[in-house]
Amino acid sequence: MVDQRRADEAGLELLFCNTYHLLLQPGPEVIAEAGGLHRYMQRTRPIITDSGGFQVFSLAHGSVFDELNMKSRKNASPNLLLAVSEDGPVFRSYRDGRMIELTPERSVQTQKKLGADIIIPLDELPPYHIDREALKQSVLLSHRWEARSLREHLRDLRQQAMFAVIHGGIDRELRQKSVEYLTALPFDGIAIGGSLGKDRSELLSLLEFLTPLLPKKWPTHLLGIADEESIRRAVPFGIDSFDSCYPTRAGRHGTLLTRSHGRVQIKSRKWERVFEPVDTTCDGFVSKNHTLAYLHHLWRAHEPLAAALLTLHNIQYMCDVMREIRERILADDL
What we know:
This is tRNA-guanine(15) transglycosylase-like domain-containing protein. Keywords: Glycosyltransferase, Metal-binding, Transferase, tRNA processing. By secondary structure, this protein is of the alpha/beta class. The protein folds into two domains: 4-244, TIM Barrel (Alpha-Beta Barrel), CATH 3.20.20.105; 249-330, no CATH class. It is 45% helix and 13% strand. It contains 15 helices and twelve strands. Helix 11 (228-234) links the parallel strand 9 (220-222) and strand 10 (241-242). Helix 3 (28-34) runs parallel beside helix 7, helix 12 (246-252) packs antiparallel against helix 15 and helix 14 (292-300) packs across helix 15.
Protein backbone atom coordinates (compact mmCIF):
# COMPACT_ATOMS: atom_id res chain seq x y z
CA MET A 1 0.00 0.00 0.00
CA VAL A 2 2.86 2.40 0.88
CA ASP A 3 6.46 2.34 -0.33
CA GLN A 4 8.51 1.86 2.84
CA ARG A 5 10.88 4.61 1.68
CA ARG A 6 8.00 7.07 2.00
CA ALA A 7 7.37 5.69 5.48
CA ASP A 8 11.06 6.21 6.30
CA GLU A 9 10.79 9.82 5.15
CA ALA A 10 7.84 10.21 7.51
CA GLY A 11 10.09 9.16 10.39
CA LEU A 12 9.32 5.46 10.83
CA GLU A 13 12.13 4.19 13.06
CA LEU A 14 11.26 0.48 13.40
CA LEU A 15 9.41 -1.55 10.77
CA PHE A 16 7.42 -4.63 11.82
CA CYS A 17 7.43 -7.43 9.22
CA ASN A 18 4.99 -10.31 9.45
CA THR A 19 6.68 -13.73 9.64
CA TYR A 20 3.44 -15.65 9.03
CA HIS A 21 2.72 -13.98 5.70
CA LEU A 22 6.38 -14.02 4.62
CA LEU A 23 6.58 -17.73 5.45
CA LEU A 24 3.74 -18.36 3.01
CA GLN A 25 4.81 -15.85 0.34
CA PRO A 26 7.50 -15.49 -0.99
CA GLY A 27 9.05 -17.87 1.56
CA PRO A 28 12.09 -17.37 3.80
CA GLU A 29 14.43 -19.11 1.33
CA VAL A 30 13.74 -16.46 -1.33
CA ILE A 31 14.38 -13.63 1.13
CA ALA A 32 17.55 -15.30 2.42
CA GLU A 33 18.81 -15.67 -1.15
CA ALA A 34 18.22 -11.93 -1.63
CA GLY A 35 20.38 -11.20 1.41
CA GLY A 36 17.66 -10.79 4.03
CA LEU A 37 14.82 -8.33 4.44
CA HIS A 38 17.05 -5.26 4.55
CA ARG A 39 18.49 -5.91 1.09
CA TYR A 40 15.26 -7.41 -0.25
CA MET A 41 13.35 -4.22 0.68
CA GLN A 42 16.28 -1.81 0.42
CA ARG A 43 15.75 -0.67 4.02
CA THR A 44 18.63 0.61 6.15
CA ARG A 45 16.70 1.22 9.38
CA PRO A 46 15.86 -1.51 11.95
CA ILE A 47 13.33 -4.29 11.31
CA ILE A 48 11.47 -6.47 13.82
CA THR A 49 9.73 -9.73 12.95
CA ASP A 50 7.17 -11.62 15.01
CA SER A 51 7.12 -15.38 15.48
CA GLY A 52 4.12 -15.97 13.23
CA GLY A 53 2.15 -17.26 16.21
CA PHE A 54 -0.25 -14.32 16.45
CA GLN A 55 -1.62 -14.90 12.95
CA VAL A 56 -1.66 -18.68 13.35
CA PHE A 57 -3.78 -18.51 16.50
CA SER A 58 -5.92 -15.80 14.95
CA LEU A 59 -6.91 -18.43 12.38
CA ALA A 60 -9.11 -19.91 15.12
CA HIS A 61 -10.25 -16.64 16.70
CA GLY A 62 -9.34 -13.02 16.20
CA SER A 63 -8.27 -10.77 13.34
CA VAL A 64 -7.19 -13.31 10.73
CA PHE A 65 -10.27 -15.46 11.39
CA ASP A 66 -12.51 -12.41 10.92
CA GLU A 67 -10.70 -11.31 7.77
CA LEU A 68 -10.91 -14.71 6.12
CA ASN A 69 -14.57 -15.03 7.07
CA MET A 70 -15.32 -11.65 5.49
CA LYS A 71 -13.70 -12.88 2.28
CA SER A 72 -15.68 -16.13 2.32
CA ARG A 73 -18.82 -15.95 0.22
CA LYS A 74 -20.62 -18.41 2.47
CA ASN A 75 -19.29 -16.67 5.60
CA ALA A 76 -18.07 -20.04 6.86
CA SER A 77 -15.09 -20.57 9.13
CA PRO A 78 -11.98 -21.48 7.11
CA ASN A 79 -10.84 -23.87 9.90
CA LEU A 80 -7.19 -23.40 9.01
CA LEU A 81 -5.76 -24.03 12.49
CA LEU A 82 -5.70 -27.82 12.63
CA ALA A 83 -4.03 -28.68 15.94
CA VAL A 84 -1.91 -27.36 18.80
CA SER A 85 0.50 -29.69 20.61
CA GLU A 86 3.67 -29.50 22.65
CA ASP A 87 5.58 -29.34 19.36
CA GLY A 88 3.69 -26.27 18.14
CA PRO A 89 0.63 -25.36 16.04
CA VAL A 90 -0.26 -27.07 12.77
CA PHE A 91 -2.22 -25.05 10.21
CA ARG A 92 -3.08 -24.88 6.54
CA SER A 93 -1.86 -22.11 4.29
CA TYR A 94 -4.69 -19.82 3.23
CA ARG A 95 -2.84 -19.46 -0.08
CA ASP A 96 -2.50 -23.04 -1.30
CA GLY A 97 -3.88 -25.27 1.46
CA ARG A 98 -0.56 -26.94 2.30
CA MET A 99 -0.10 -28.10 5.88
CA ILE A 100 2.56 -26.35 7.95
CA GLU A 101 3.87 -27.15 11.43
CA LEU A 102 5.26 -24.06 13.16
CA THR A 103 7.56 -25.34 15.90
CA PRO A 104 9.52 -22.87 18.07
CA GLU A 105 12.66 -23.94 16.25
CA ARG A 106 11.15 -23.43 12.79
CA SER A 107 9.87 -19.99 13.77
CA VAL A 108 13.37 -18.92 14.83
CA GLN A 109 15.01 -20.50 11.78
CA THR A 110 12.55 -18.62 9.57
CA GLN A 111 13.33 -15.33 11.31
CA LYS A 112 17.06 -16.01 10.93
CA LYS A 113 16.55 -16.29 7.17
CA LEU A 114 14.49 -13.11 7.15
CA GLY A 115 17.36 -11.36 8.93
CA ALA A 116 15.45 -8.92 11.15
CA ASP A 117 17.27 -6.98 13.87
CA ILE A 118 14.79 -8.00 16.60
CA ILE A 119 13.01 -11.36 16.62
CA ILE A 120 10.23 -12.82 18.76
CA PRO A 121 9.95 -16.37 20.22
CA LEU A 122 6.94 -18.54 19.49
CA ASP A 123 4.08 -18.18 21.99
CA GLU A 124 0.44 -19.17 22.24
CA LEU A 125 -2.29 -16.55 22.00
CA PRO A 126 -5.37 -17.57 24.01
CA PRO A 127 -8.60 -15.54 23.72
CA TYR A 128 -9.67 -13.00 26.33
CA HIS A 129 -12.53 -15.18 27.58
CA ILE A 130 -10.77 -18.26 28.92
CA ASP A 131 -10.95 -19.96 32.31
CA ARG A 132 -8.00 -19.55 34.64
CA GLU A 133 -6.74 -23.13 34.49
CA ALA A 134 -6.70 -23.07 30.70
CA LEU A 135 -4.93 -19.71 30.81
CA LYS A 136 -2.35 -21.08 33.24
CA GLN A 137 -1.63 -24.06 30.98
CA SER A 138 -1.32 -21.70 28.01
CA VAL A 139 1.21 -19.53 29.87
CA LEU A 140 3.26 -22.59 30.79
CA LEU A 141 3.16 -23.81 27.18
CA SER A 142 4.32 -20.38 25.98
CA HIS A 143 7.16 -20.49 28.50
CA ARG A 144 8.33 -23.86 27.18
CA TRP A 145 8.09 -22.67 23.58
CA GLU A 146 9.95 -19.45 24.38
CA ALA A 147 12.74 -21.35 26.13
CA ARG A 148 13.09 -23.61 23.08
CA SER A 149 13.06 -20.55 20.80
CA LEU A 150 15.80 -18.94 22.88
CA ARG A 151 17.97 -22.07 22.74
CA GLU A 152 17.62 -22.14 18.96
CA HIS A 153 18.44 -18.43 18.76
CA LEU A 154 21.55 -18.73 20.93
CA ARG A 155 22.97 -21.40 18.61
CA ASP A 156 23.36 -18.77 15.87
CA LEU A 157 22.97 -15.17 17.11
CA ARG A 158 23.67 -13.34 13.82
CA GLN A 159 23.67 -10.00 15.70
CA GLN A 160 19.95 -10.35 16.30
CA ALA A 161 18.18 -9.50 19.57
CA MET A 162 15.35 -11.66 20.90
CA PHE A 163 12.58 -10.24 23.09
CA ALA A 164 10.72 -12.47 25.56
CA VAL A 165 6.91 -12.26 25.44
CA ILE A 166 5.21 -11.86 28.82
CA HIS A 167 1.85 -13.63 29.10
CA GLY A 168 -0.94 -14.16 31.60
CA GLY A 169 -3.90 -12.18 30.31
CA ILE A 170 -5.22 -9.83 32.98
CA ASP A 171 -4.42 -12.34 35.74
CA ARG A 172 -1.83 -10.54 37.85
CA GLU A 173 -0.44 -13.64 39.53
CA LEU A 174 0.18 -15.34 36.18
CA ARG A 175 1.69 -12.15 34.75
CA GLN A 176 4.09 -11.92 37.69
CA LYS A 177 5.12 -15.55 37.33
CA SER A 178 5.67 -14.99 33.61
CA VAL A 179 7.93 -12.01 34.35
CA GLU A 180 9.91 -13.97 36.95
CA TYR A 181 10.46 -16.94 34.66
CA LEU A 182 11.30 -15.10 31.43
CA THR A 183 13.50 -12.38 32.91
CA ALA A 184 15.69 -15.09 34.45
CA LEU A 185 16.58 -16.21 30.90
CA PRO A 186 19.14 -14.41 28.70
CA PHE A 187 16.73 -12.50 26.47
CA ASP A 188 17.56 -9.00 25.21
CA GLY A 189 14.27 -7.23 25.85
CA ILE A 190 10.63 -7.61 26.84
CA ALA A 191 7.46 -7.68 24.75
CA ILE A 192 4.15 -7.54 26.58
CA GLY A 193 1.76 -9.85 24.75
CA GLY A 194 -1.31 -11.99 25.14
CA SER A 195 -4.71 -10.58 25.97
CA LEU A 196 -4.27 -7.02 27.24
CA GLY A 197 -7.80 -6.47 28.49
CA LYS A 198 -11.21 -5.79 27.05
CA ASP A 199 -10.68 -2.01 26.93
CA ARG A 200 -8.10 0.71 27.52
CA SER A 201 -8.92 0.88 31.23
CA GLU A 202 -7.96 -2.76 31.74
CA LEU A 203 -4.84 -2.29 29.61
CA LEU A 204 -3.61 0.66 31.67
CA SER A 205 -4.42 -1.08 34.94
CA LEU A 206 -2.38 -4.07 33.77
CA LEU A 207 0.56 -1.88 32.74
CA GLU A 208 0.50 -0.04 36.06
CA PHE A 209 0.89 -3.39 37.83
CA LEU A 210 3.25 -5.05 35.37
CA THR A 211 5.86 -2.52 34.33
CA PRO A 212 7.43 -2.01 37.80
CA LEU A 213 8.24 -5.74 37.73
CA LEU A 214 10.25 -5.50 34.50
CA PRO A 215 14.04 -5.07 34.33
CA LYS A 216 14.92 -1.41 33.75
CA LYS A 217 17.92 -2.40 31.61
CA TRP A 218 15.74 -4.10 29.00
CA PRO A 219 13.73 -2.24 26.33
CA THR A 220 9.99 -2.87 26.58
CA HIS A 221 7.66 -3.29 23.61
CA LEU A 222 3.85 -3.37 23.78
CA LEU A 223 2.51 -5.77 21.17
CA GLY A 224 -0.51 -4.85 19.07
CA ILE A 225 -1.30 -1.45 20.60
CA ALA A 226 -0.71 1.80 18.71
CA ASP A 227 -3.69 4.15 18.94
CA GLU A 228 -2.66 7.63 20.02
CA GLU A 229 -4.36 7.80 23.40
CA SER A 230 -3.11 4.38 24.49
CA ILE A 231 0.43 5.34 23.47
CA ARG A 232 0.35 8.64 25.33
CA ARG A 233 -0.95 6.95 28.47
CA ALA A 234 1.36 3.91 28.24
CA VAL A 235 4.66 5.76 27.74
CA PRO A 236 4.76 7.09 31.35
CA PHE A 237 4.70 3.46 32.52
CA GLY A 238 7.99 2.89 30.70
CA ILE A 239 6.85 1.42 27.37
CA ASP A 240 9.50 2.13 24.72
CA SER A 241 7.94 0.94 21.46
CA PHE A 242 4.59 -0.07 19.99
CA ASP A 243 3.17 -1.77 16.92
CA SER A 244 -0.27 -2.00 15.38
CA CYS A 245 -2.01 -1.93 12.01
CA TYR A 246 -4.39 0.69 13.46
CA PRO A 247 -3.09 3.79 11.60
CA THR A 248 -2.74 2.00 8.25
CA ARG A 249 -6.04 0.14 8.58
CA ALA A 250 -7.79 3.43 9.37
CA GLY A 251 -6.32 4.90 6.20
CA ARG A 252 -7.38 1.94 4.09
CA HIS A 253 -10.91 2.40 5.40
CA GLY A 254 -11.09 6.12 4.67
CA THR A 255 -10.10 7.73 7.97
CA LEU A 256 -7.47 10.45 8.29
CA LEU A 257 -5.85 11.29 11.63
CA THR A 258 -5.29 15.04 11.83
CA ARG A 259 -4.66 17.77 14.37
CA SER A 260 -6.40 20.56 12.47
CA HIS A 261 -9.62 18.66 11.70
CA GLY A 262 -9.66 15.74 14.14
CA ARG A 263 -10.64 12.36 12.66
CA VAL A 264 -11.65 12.90 9.05
CA GLN A 265 -14.01 10.51 7.26
CA ILE A 266 -12.85 11.43 3.78
CA LYS A 267 -15.90 10.04 1.96
CA SER A 268 -18.13 12.67 3.58
CA ARG A 269 -19.44 15.34 1.20
CA LYS A 270 -18.36 18.03 3.67
CA TRP A 271 -14.81 17.75 2.27
CA GLU A 272 -15.81 18.09 -1.39
CA ARG A 273 -14.86 21.79 -1.60
CA VAL A 274 -12.30 22.07 1.20
CA PHE A 275 -9.30 23.20 -0.84
CA GLU A 276 -6.81 23.25 1.99
CA PRO A 277 -4.06 20.88 3.15
CA VAL A 278 -5.04 17.62 4.80
CA ASP A 279 -3.52 18.87 8.06
CA THR A 280 -2.31 22.46 8.35
CA THR A 281 -0.03 21.46 11.26
CA CYS A 282 1.72 18.69 9.30
CA ASP A 283 4.82 19.03 7.14
CA GLY A 284 4.54 15.57 5.59
CA PHE A 285 4.33 14.61 1.92
CA VAL A 286 0.53 14.29 1.76
CA SER A 287 -0.26 17.51 3.59
CA LYS A 288 2.29 19.45 1.55
CA ASN A 289 1.02 18.16 -1.79
CA HIS A 290 -2.70 17.37 -1.54
CA THR A 291 -5.96 18.90 -0.34
CA LEU A 292 -8.88 17.34 1.46
CA ALA A 293 -11.04 17.98 -1.61
CA TYR A 294 -8.64 16.05 -3.83
CA LEU A 295 -8.47 13.07 -1.45
CA HIS A 296 -12.26 13.14 -1.18
CA HIS A 297 -12.48 12.96 -4.98
CA LEU A 298 -10.02 10.05 -5.15
CA TRP A 299 -11.97 8.13 -2.51
CA ARG A 300 -15.36 8.72 -4.14
CA ALA A 301 -13.87 7.70 -7.49
CA HIS A 302 -12.55 4.45 -5.95
CA GLU A 303 -9.00 5.29 -6.98
CA PRO A 304 -6.39 2.99 -5.32
CA LEU A 305 -4.22 6.07 -4.80
CA ALA A 306 -6.70 7.32 -2.19
CA ALA A 307 -6.03 4.51 0.28
CA ALA A 308 -2.27 4.82 -0.31
CA LEU A 309 -2.23 8.56 0.43
CA LEU A 310 -4.49 8.25 3.47
CA THR A 311 -2.30 5.46 4.82
CA LEU A 312 0.90 7.44 4.26
CA HIS A 313 -0.54 10.48 6.01
CA ASN A 314 -1.58 8.40 9.03
CA ILE A 315 1.93 6.95 9.28
CA GLN A 316 3.27 10.52 9.22
CA TYR A 317 0.77 11.53 11.91
CA MET A 318 1.80 8.72 14.27
CA CYS A 319 5.51 9.33 13.62
CA ASP A 320 4.95 12.97 14.55
CA VAL A 321 3.20 11.87 17.76
CA MET A 322 6.15 9.66 18.70
CA ARG A 323 8.64 12.40 17.83
CA GLU A 324 6.79 14.81 20.12
CA ILE A 325 6.80 12.23 22.94
CA ARG A 326 10.56 11.64 22.57
CA GLU A 327 11.21 15.39 22.68
CA ARG A 328 9.14 15.70 25.85
CA ILE A 329 11.08 12.85 27.47
CA LEU A 330 14.41 14.45 26.58
CA ALA A 331 13.16 17.76 28.00
CA ASP A 332 12.13 16.02 31.27
CA ASP A 333 8.54 17.00 30.56
CA LEU A 334 7.26 13.42 30.64
